[in-house]
Every structure is written in C-alpha cells, then in structure tokens.
Amino acid sequence: MVPEISRLVRRSTFVLIVLASFGVEVAATDGRAVGQSICFLSIWIVVAAVVAQFIPIPTDPRSKPPLWLFFLLLGLALAPFVVEPLRRNWTGDGYPLEIQMVCSFRNVGLGFSVCAGWLLCLRLACVTSLFLILFSVSMTNHPAMMVVLGMYTATGSIWLMIAYWSAFRSVFVAPEKTVTIELHDSCERAPWLGFSVLVFFLGLALALVLVGPRRASYALGEWMPTSGGTGATDMFARFGVGDGPEETAGDNAKAAGMVETDKMIEDNKNSLIDAVNDLYGPPHKPNEDVERMVAAGKVDVIQFHGKLPDNKRPSRDFDTGRKGPKGNPKPKSQGARGVFEVQGRTPLHIRLVAYDIYEPVEKRWLEARKPTGKLIEAQGGDWMKLGFLKPNDWYLADERHRLKVAELKSNLVPTPSLLMHFRINKVDKSDYYEWDYEGVLVLAGRKSIPPGVIVTTDCRTVDPMRLPKSAFGTVGGTNGTSPNLGDVPSIIRPEILKLAREWAGDHPRGWLQIDAIQRKLLNEYTLDLNATAPPENPAPVLWFLNESRRGPDYLFASAFALMLRALDYPTRICMGYYASPDAYDPETAHTSVKVTDLHFWPEVLLLDGHWMVLEPTPGYGILGPTLSLFERILDAFAFLIFWLYSHIIKFTLLFCLLFAGWIKRCDLFDSLAFLIWASFPGKTWCEQVRGAMAILERRGRLSGKARKCRQTMFCWLRESLLKPSKPDADLYQIALMAQWAAYAQEAPPPWSQPEVLNVCHRVLGSWTLKRWREAPPDFLIGDKS
Amino acid sequence: MSILTDDAQTNLALKGTLLEGIRAALNRALRGKADVVEKVIACLLARGHLLLEDLPGLGKTTLAKAIAFAVGGNFSRVQCTPDLLPGDITGFSVFNQKTREFEFLSGPVFSDVLLADEINRTTPRTQSALLEAMAERQVTVDNIRHTLTPMFFVVATQNPFEHHGTYPLPEAQLDRFAMKLAVGYPEKSDELGLLAAAIGYVDDPLIQKSVLLKGQLAGLQEQVSKVLVQPNLQEYLVDLGRATRVHPKVTLGLSPRGLLIWQRVAQAWAFLKDRPFVTPDDIQDIAIPVLSVRLGLAPDEASNIINQLLETVPVPV
User: Fold this and answer.
1) In chain B, whose CA is at the least distance from the CA of A735?
2) Which residues in chain A are closer than 8 Å to B311, comparing Cβ atoms?
3) Residue of B278, B279, B315 lying closest to A710 (CB–CB)
4) Does the interface predicted TM-score (ipTM) exceed 0.85?
5) The whole model's pTM is what?
C-alpha cells in the first residue's frame, strides 16, 4: 500500500518528527535543565519550518530526490557537531558524543520531513521519528516522556488514517469502485552497494578496535551509544544517557552518592543527653494511640451513632495495626565496593607511601622522611590551600575531583598529585592535617578516616610537552633538593647510566629525554606480576632491564626512577592507589578504587616543588589536561597525520588499490558475479538461463543499455544487440531460452541441459562488459516493432 | 532440433498451410495491410468479434466479405440504417395461414460471418439486438432461444463518431468486441497495384474462394485455446487490467470479460507466431486494438494512454 502524500500527511509527518525530537531532548537532559534543551530544539524546529517553505513539492512523489537534498541533509547532520563547541562556550553545558549523534540523526529526520513531498523522504522521516521515539522511551523514565509518547501515538494514528485514506474509504464504498494497485516504477534491486559500504565501514571499525592503535580504539569505544564514556577524552562523555542518577545517596559506606555529611564532627564520647539518660533513665515514651475497629450490625451503628453501649459490643475486637511481611532473613552485604569512590576524570594516582632511598644490600626502597612544616593554609569555607607551591604558567586548567572514603583503614586523606586546594566538610583548620610524606596528606591525630567523608580536591594538570627544560631541577642543585633523590647504588650505577644514555639518545635534557626512556619501557617491556627476580640476583633492576624484560610494576618504577637519577633528575617512587578508567561505573558516574588497585609509579620533582607522576608501566595512564573540543579535533587530526605518515607506504598502496578498485568496480562486480554463476549455475536449465540473463542484464545496465520496464528479455536483446546485419546465433539462442525459461516453464524445453550451459557460457564469454560498452549508440533500444 | 512427434509435425504443417491460405486471401482483398490482416486473423482465432472503424471506402466491407469466404462459412450482411429494427437482424415470427402456426423467419444473424455495416448509423435499440448474439452466440425471439453457429463472427464497421448521423455504440456493446481496428489508407504502391488488378475483372474470383473446410476453423480455435499462459503472465495481465481502473484518464476500466478476451487474443497472437506459449510481447502487441475498443478513451489519446499503462507495469522476467 502506498501512502497518499497530501499536505496533511506531510504536516503530520513533521509533527511526528517534532514530537520525537522533544522525546530525545527529554531523554538527553539527564538531570540538566529541560527548558534550555527545549529552547535549543525549538531553534532547530523553527529553522526546519522555515526551510520547508523553500523546498519545492515534486510533481511526481515517486521521483528520485534531487542531489542538493543530500547536501542539505549532510549539512543538517553535521550542524550539531559544529554548534556543540559554541554551546559549551556559552552555556558551560554540553552533550556527550552519543547524544550529539542522536541530535544529528534528529536533524536528518527534520530534513526528511521538510522534503516529504518525495515519497522516499516521507518514509525515511517516519522511520526516523519512530527510531527516535523508541530511543527516547528506552532511555528515560521521565514523566514528561509519557506525555510525549501519548501525543506521538495519537498523531501517529491520525497519520495512518490520513495516509491510507483511500484504503479506509474502500470499507465504506463499494469495493469494485475502490480498486487500488501498487505500481512499480522500476524493477526492484537489492541495495548491494549500500550493503557493501556498510560492511566495509563496520569491518574497518572492527579492525581498528581489534588491531588498530589503542587511542583509536578508545575513540571508537566512546562512539558507542549509551556507553557513557570514561571521561578520559571528553568530560561530557561521562554523563551520557544512563549515567549518574542511579547513584545511592546516604552516609553509609556502601552508598556511592557524593552527599556530604557531618561525619568529621561526630564524637565518640558521651553526649549530655547520654549523661542525663545514665542518671535519670531513658525518656518516657507513651504508648501510641492504637485505633481499634469494632464489628457491629449496621442498624446498631446508625441507632447509637457509632458509639455502641457495652451490652451491644461483641466480645471480640482486633487491632488495625498490622506488621508487614517479614523481610528477607538473609542479611545483605553492607560492605562498600571499594576503598573509596572517585568522582571526576581518571586515571588518577593517589599516593599512600613515598620511597626515596634505594637500599642496594636489601634490594628495596626505604620510605621517605616525614616533611617538616605544615605549609597548609585555611582558605575559608573549609577549603585548604598548599602555600609552599610556586605559581607557574606551564600548568593548564585545574581539575576538580571528589573522593568519597568508604573503607579506608588509615588516616590517609586521598588526594591526587599536583594538589592545590582541598576541602573536607566541617574540617576548617589546617591543624587537622599533616603530611606523612611529601604529597601524602593525612588527618592529624586520627587512626582512620570515617566512612562517608568526602574530600574535594583541585589539582593541576600539565601537558609534559609544554614543560620547559628549566622545569626539572637537578639533584643537590640550588633549589635545595635532597641528595637522596639522586642516589643510585654504585654497583649498578655504570650500567644504569649507560642504558639511560643509550635510551635517551640525542634528546636534550627535559621532558623529551624522560619521555624517550619512558617510551622504551612502555613499548619494549611487558607487565608481568609473576615475573619476580630470583632472590639470589644481586640487582633485580638490572635483571629486569637486561634479562627478563618483563616484571611487575615496582620493577618498572624502580628501573625508571634509577635511570632518571643516573641522568641527574630528582626522583622517587610511590606506592598508592590507581583509579583506573576501566573501573568507571556509568550508573553512578564514579570510579571505585579497590584494595587491589595498589600500584607503584615513579615521580620526578619539578622546580616549583610539585612531584610529577610518571608512568612507565604498560596499561597505566596519567591524567592529562582537559582539552577543548577544537583542541581534541586538532590533536586527533595531528595524530592521524602522524600515523598515516608513519605508514605512508602501506597507505599509498592501499589507496592505489582502493582507487583502482573504485575505477574498475563495475568490472570487478561483473567478474565476481560471473564467477559465482560459473561456480553455482543452478540445478535446472531455467535457473541457469536466468542466472546468465541476470549477468547480461547487469552488463547492459552498467553500460547504459538497461532493459526498460515494459521490455522482455527477448525483446530487449533483439532490439539492442540482435541486428540483422550482425546476427549472433548464440545470443539469439539465449534470448529464446530466456523466453522459454520465463514463460513456458511447464512446456518441455527444446534444449538439453549441457547445451543450455554451453550457450550461456559462450554468450557471457563473448558479450563482455567491454563489448557492451563498445556497442554503438544506435544499438540502444529503439521503438518496438 | 525438433522435439515434436510426427503427428504433431503434420498438424503443424497443416496449421501453417491453413493460416497461410487465410493470410493470402485476406491480403489479396485488403492490399498493403498485412498488420491489420494479422490482427483480424487473431481476432477470428480467438473467437472474438471485430469492429472496424475508419472512413468510408477503405475496404472494411471487402475485408469482412473476404473473411466470410475464406473461412468457408455463410455470410450475411446488414446495412445499418436509422430505421433498421432489431427484428431485421435477429428475425421474427410470422403466422403461416396454411399450418395455422407461427413460423420463425431467421434474420441475418443466423450466419457464420455477419457483417454489420456502418453499425453506428442505426439506433442504440437496434444495436442492442446484437448483444446476446455476440456474447452467448444465441438469439431469443418470442421467448424462444435460437442457437447460432459455433463459429459465429461479427465484423462491424463504423464511421468515426464525429461524422453526421451516427449513434455511439453503448459500452456493453463495445465490450463484446474483441478488438477495434482502423484500416487506414494504403500506400501508393498498393493503390497502384489495386488499380492494376481491377483492369479486366468485374470481381476478383480468388477472393470468393474458400480456404478452410467446414470444421477446420473450430480446430484452429481449439488449438489456440490450448496455448500456454503462465501464471506470472496472467498476473501481468491482471495488473495491467487493474492499472486501467485507477488511471485518471480512463473513464471505464477493463472488465473481467475484457481480460478474458485479451488473454484469448494474446493466445491467438502467439499461435500465429508459431509459439506454444504467450509472452508479454504478445500481450503488448495486441494491447492497443483490444483496449481501445473498451476503455472509453478519446480516439486521439487512446494509444498514448495505453502505452503509458504498458510502460508503468513491469513485465515478469
């Protein structure tokens, strides 16, 4: 059944897509202000409505939409990605990539609906609206969604009635007067090209994910709708649809919600009320007034106005208060899911212990000394500031994190590196804090930090590439760096120094030098938690570097730190918790850190007093600065260029192959089709002839001599190729065979099966695509004789 | 390679001879109009009736008479005039004074080939006298049914509508014709040949020579009815028929009777081309004469609209 394309149908289609767009906005707001989103949507709808005024209505709805429509839709599809950076700048709010994709799809749907004069666009607009409304309904349970859904359903019903009015009319009018027929403009063709392109791109994406560079895999992973993202590359990506609102608020350890409590002002000593209770007993609690119901006859109740005398009261009464069903006797686990929860971008390194002296005899690191001096200043509003740090312009925007303590057994205040400010609710004096090691903050005078405490931190972010050479101090330099930080045992120093110089290459002192060594470890060494050095080995680090080339993270950290020390960088190694992006939970929008997330990493001292985290262990990362969308695109583009340049030969070959394949695509497809037919020609002679004729017909179509809708195969071949001046017996024979195969299947064939196959082979072999193309224009189909 | 048996080959040869004989006879009568003659034979073999519409003097009557002679049947002719009555065609009962009974005097309709010349010059009342005869090959007079011959074949001629003193044929009448043909003016060479052949002859004796023996036409018609029509072609026919009913310019869509006639004529067309099955080309080749008689189309637009319909519905392959 073909829908009628009246103005009403077009308008109701527009309403459908508008309602679906509202649904998308409701689903996408996800805690944001709905009004703002609706306002943005309204702008798009107004734009679409205005554009609709300039779109012409085709005389034949079945005609092919014009080419400019493609560019219009492409522009609409790309528009949300262009507008998004502006929106982020103006409003400070943004959509994750998957919602941008849905918005892009919504725009395409709006585009289809304004071009609904073409039947194809009308159908696609309806399908788009259906997809969007289903997407919205499945993504949110917002009450407004039900309203939108109801309106969509009603409008959809009206659309169906209008669109299929002629069919409805047949119910009321005599059937013989309302015959309808579906007319086909052209013969149906399977969309092989579209299917092939789809398969190609899916395969490419899959190949990139599986074997491509890791960064590309991450980027593709964040394109997955409703993934929520990890926030590693786009801060808005972690608030995707389905992120966040499921978090449980509360102050018990299990609750992941970041709800600030007064835990830190609670005291375990007896309060005044407790003292009073001890003296005078607990306060009297009168029994609650229990309502009772009396069973009596209706007449008595009316006669005595509901207050029955005693002689009328029945001997039984019952309590209306009821106890609920007994709960599940099996106690639920009250344990937290981690040591603490992190809200904010990850990866994050939370220091626990710092080590600065390597003991060669016992082959272990010794803990660093406790720093003297407080150097923590109250800033107001319970915020604390680290006063000893010098300001520098090589840092980028601060990053805020909130860490909720769950089951931390020590008095550690979990803070990321490059810390600048921090805050715990109601803890407003700097005396409550002290340093266990440099950069490791603890609560003074407490053995542990209570569950539920939330630490809010602002830490700096740094792009190491922007660090100047002067950012890295030297051991024992003018800045008063402790000589311990450059200490390398003399037994291993020559070899370590040799390796370090070899790996650093010609890079000048500074980040490039450090990065060269780090890359070497990252690329050529393997993380293996079980690969420990033999106990009798005098230098486990050298064993790791020279022999095994695999080991646990502390060997990576030790080796890197010692090599940097050999090059006169003040370094230390730290043990702490690593908040991995892989542990990100999209339901709570938090990353939980468990006891098993303990990790070792080296750090290098910067001149301003900050310890900068280094990460030589494969599989671990460092929190980078938050880049704007434009910077990310530029970064990705630069990376792509670099990647392409590094594989220039492969890509040139691939490009040449693809280009040649594209140029010769028709011949390739034709050869493939012939190969398939030759391998599986069919069981009966009819199938064989039909297969051969399909190939011939495709060749005719590719060479611009397509069969017309009203032409039979015989007529088409007779009029296009079978010229009396150049009779081709085989072609005439196959034309006859095609006629028999199509219209006389029940009649006994006048050919044997081998004969049919031979003729088909000869025709397909002689009437190649090239020959079809070379056939003169007067061989084109003429008038029927 | 032939897969036919000896009997079948004999039949085939006989069929060829007969058809060639009819073709020769009709082409002799109507010079230079081989395509018209071919369609006339198809109409005859399909047991349909033929309406010839053209200007006076183009050989319509000659062709009708040649058909009658060729098939070896009785020939009757009715010159339709405004004062012609239905009884003049069907016949009527008269009272026999001797036998004291009514006797039925059969009209010209009781023949094998009836030529209704200038049929649209008579009134619709008289035109309707042929309805039963053409559809059911019988005539009912005074409540008595009279059966016509099995090979009853009506050839009607008519002048174009715009000519003075014509009554358009009713739709019911038109639907009973298998096809409508226009003879058209012959080529110059044919006209020269026509003139040359007329010298020395009062009438062409060869035209009056019978080609078929009694029963041979019925045999051919039976063979035609057995020509294979695949279901996909029947579906194609039905699609075409339904397309005529929704076309905005077609006032009267194709009736199921029209579909049946179209299929029969297509079978006859395939038979004439020595093919044991029908193809879409057969259906398309005879679409214009079959459809133009019954779709209620303006004469100048008929071929365009029919071609449009044929372009719209895809052929089965």
Assistant:
1) B317
2) 708-710
3) B315
4) no
5) 0.55
